[in-house]
Every structure is written in C-alpha cells, then in structure tokens.
Amino acid sequence: MVFEIDNVELYFNKKTILNGVYLKAQTNTITGILGRNGCGKSCLLSIIFGSLSSKYALIRINNKPITKALYLTNQVAYLPQFYFTPNQININKLFKLYKVSWKDFEAKFPEFKTYKSKTINYLSGGERRVIEIYLILNTPSNLVLLDEPFSNISPIYIEKIKQIIKRVNKTKAIVLTDHSYNEVIDIADQIYLLKNGCTKLINHIKELESYNYLSFGTL
Ligand SMILES: Nc1ncnc2c1ncn2[C@@H]1O[C@H](COP(=O)(O)OP(=O)(O)OP(=O)(O)O)[C@@H](O)[C@H]1O
C-alpha cells in the first residue's frame, strides 16, 4: 500500500503546530520521523490515525482519497506514546482479544513465559511496552504507526523489536518516531524531519545538523 498525507494544518489556541505537512509511507519502506520536543510528531500520528482532528488534512491510500477517520477503516494500527492497555487486564486474555499468538510471542521473548497468567500492571514499564508494541505490530492492518517504540526498552529487546518491524514491513507500511535517533536512522529507509510545522525529507544524515536537529558531536 502507498499512504500519503498532505497539506496538514493544525492549530491549538491560534498557535500553529503543523502547517503544510506532507508524508508518504509504503509497504517495504520504513518511514522515520525525527524532530525536537513539541514539534508535533505525536499530533501528526494522531491525525493520521484519526483520533485528532486538524483544520485540514488530505489522506490518500493507493492514490484514492480517504474521507473518514482511518481507524474506522481497519487499515491502521497505532501505538500511542503512553500505555493503552487497561491496568487490570490479564495478559493471556489481552493476546486473545488481539487474536495474537502467545506461543509465537513466548518463542521470541522467552523471558516473558511466567507472565502469561498475570495482569499487565504486574510487568515493568518497559516489559509492558514490549507487549504493547508486539500486539500493535501483529494486529491486522496495512499501516502501522509507532510513537516512541524504543523509549524505556533495553537494547536486547530493541534489537528484537527492530527485527519484527523489518519483517512486518514486508506486508505493511510503517511510520515511526522516537528520540533514540540512532535507532531511527538505523532502521528507517526514509526520514522526515518535522520542523517549524513542516516535514523535510532528509536525503543525507548531515542535513540533520544543518537543520539544527543534531550537532555533529552527537552523531
Ligand atoms: N490538546 C492540546 N491542546 C493544546 N496544545 C496541545 C495539545 N496537544 C498537543 N499540544 C501542543 O502541540 C505541540 C505538539 O505536541 P506533540 O505532542 O505532537 O509534540 P511531539 O513532537 O510529539 O513532542 P515530544 O517529542 O516531546 O513527545 C506541543 O507544543 C503541545 O504542547
């Protein structure tokens, strides 16, 4: 699938957050969004998902305009920045609810074996996040939006999640954003920098310095 969003305009209390954003994502291409705190990355993902209304946004899938909220079309799965699972839900039940195989998950993350019968709030914050990311990546959809999938996750799990993202991307378009820019740069096939309300397609990593997102000492 080819997903495009164009001409996004978002204002809060007369403050311009997004103004003229364009973004394209497609199957077999991992799309990364980088940008400073508060530049509008989460808002953009919410607008794509359909849970946040903007003054204007034009969405096309395979060149056809989509007029209703994307989440109503079953095309999209969205990992928000904060936990979305209810605290008291049993983990086995959660996997059943999402129709995702616990057995496959356990094979990839054997450390979680004893958690099957626990409630989700029994887990550490990072462990809970691993489960949430896994569920979202394995939910039927054509487009996956991941808001900070690498935050608070230990390196060994980040590597496993990156492998799953790459596998899933063979059949789904993936858009992700994270402040772990090294991970984003490593996994993304194309990167947009969100700055001053607009997206800029990054052709060379050095541009991230000229746009004042990174200083070379940190690369
Ligand atoms: N409901 C809201 N009402 C008013 N302002 C909001 C609202 N939601 C977000 N904003 C503002 O919109 C701007 C963009 O927020 P957003 O959460 O998209 O940033 P972000 O790039 O994801 O930041 P971070 O990397 O820190 O998570 C911020 O200045 C924020 O204060």
Automatic annotation (TrEMBL):
Family annotation (Pfam families): ABC_tran
UniProt keyword annotations, A-Z: Amino-acid transport, ATP-binding, Nucleotide-binding, Transport
A molecular-function term among this protein's GO annotations: ATP binding
Domain ABC transporter: residue ranges: 3-219
Coiled-coil residue windows: none
SUPFAM superfamilies: P-loop containing nucleoside triphosphate hydrolases
InterPro entries in alphabetical order: ABC_transporter-like_ATP-bd, BCAA_Transport_ATP-bd_LivF, P-loop_NTPase
CDD domains assigned: ABC_ATPase (cd00267)
Superkingdom field: Bacteria
Family recorded in the similarity comment: Belongs to the ABC transporter superfamily.
Record protein name field: ABC transporter ATP-binding protein
Organism per entry: Mesoflavibacter profundi
